[in-house]
Amino acid sequence: MSEGKNSAGNENGKYPEPQEVTAVTKQQLTVGGRTLNYTTTAGTMVLKEEAEEDGKSEGEKAKATVFYVAYMLDDVEDAAKRPLTFSFNGGPGSSSVWLHLGVLGPRRVEMAGEMGRLPRPPFRLVDNEFTLLTQSDLVFIDPVSTGYSRPAPGEKTKEYHDFDKDIESVGEFIRLYTSRATRWSSPKFLIGESYGTTRAAGLSGYLQDRHGMYFNGIMLVSSILNFQTAYFRPGNDLPFILFLPTYAATAHYHGRLDEDLQQRPLRDVLQEVEAFALGDYTLALMQGASLPAAQRETIVQLVARYTGLSPNYVERSNLRVEIMRFTKELLREEGLTVGRLDGRFTGADRDNAGETFEFDPSYAAIQGPYTATLNDYVRRELAFESDLPYEIITNRVHPWSYKKFENQYVEVADTLRKAMNINPYLQVLVANGLYDLATPYLATEYTFNHLGLPPARQEDVRMKYYEAGHMMYLHRPSLAQLHEDLAGFVEGAVGE
User: Fold this and answer.
1) CA-based radius of gyration for the chain
2) Residue 167 has what pLDDT?
3) 378 and 393 share one domain
4) Are residues 142 and 180 in the same domain?
5) Tens of pLDDT along 25-66?
6) H or E stretch including 417?
């Protein structure tokens, strides 16, 4: 089934209206001895602008076309009781491919080994015994300009590359899909990864306030709700503190710590580093230039001890090691860099004296497999045809507008807090990778520890940890544990 052309104007100089196109297939999967028969719909939904009350616009005008893939379990006795989960990734500029083919969908990318390294091409999909389809129907959403989603011809593309507009357009898709599928009575969930967690928190408030849509649960994979925790800027010491344990985890993995630390279990080491980061290290950085010389030397030695870097490098960095410098410096003597998305992965640059790496080796390991398998899967198995490039991760959304947060850091944690206070049944699960240098786990803990929830609601936020990176599902043991945690969360949030 092919997508209607919508890039050229007609003879009157007007663009043809975008058309909705869908491809429906029936498929089967066996999980733990249970046979799942399900219906897959791959298609596009046209978002439209309502006619203005003053009559300036006549009828509804197409705004954008959103591509999605939906999986619905067949032979369900009462669909109203069947959970429905909406999924998206982040970027901004990422399609939904990572959660889709990494952990949630009925098919997943086969990576190499237990760690999930780059396999030899060509790449392939395998049946996913860890699919969340066992617990919930699934809808994967590609925000405008990602995947096959596009603004309507003649529309200003940049309008959708905005914090508020992104939430509004994804929220409009969720509302419209829920209505068309007659699923307003179903238990509903959101799951986002990385910037997708920012979007999910924003949607938790937007959909409650705008459409009265209440959710049972929100699942945040590699969360970032307060950008101050991750922006290395002069005058903002917070990231240097909150990234330190993940530096230690990465150094521990690569055998760069002192022998006594290397011989201890990772969790024990991290507990010690966390105490230092939130204690003496924080107090030292807060003093700035007034820090006494003797105390400064002690801090230099301890930062070096916990990061695997030399005391000289820590001193020259003014006690503050920025993330990209760390990925370049840790294994510089070996001519290697470490990954940002996953500190366990290594790469090599042409210039070993450089300030930052040429590429993220942890992203390089997944870009090819996920891109190739998605493009093949959509046409071969899902029968959806389009000649548009499927934008896995695109720079076309940049510059992304955060005008709502001008002269301040992006912060959506309070939106989530308010949504939880309004809806006392809203549960939250947060999945953290210990080797994730993009959204470090201590930064996430800091955000949720400052959420301001009533004490009685603190237990409604569940923190989970995995000895893996940003995409913890690449690591086979973490994938199995993540599935167990997500499935248990959905069951609990529906039953409570």
Assistant:
1) 23
2) 97
3) yes
4) yes
5) 999 999 988 999 999 999 999 999 876 655 555 557 889 999
6) helix 413-422
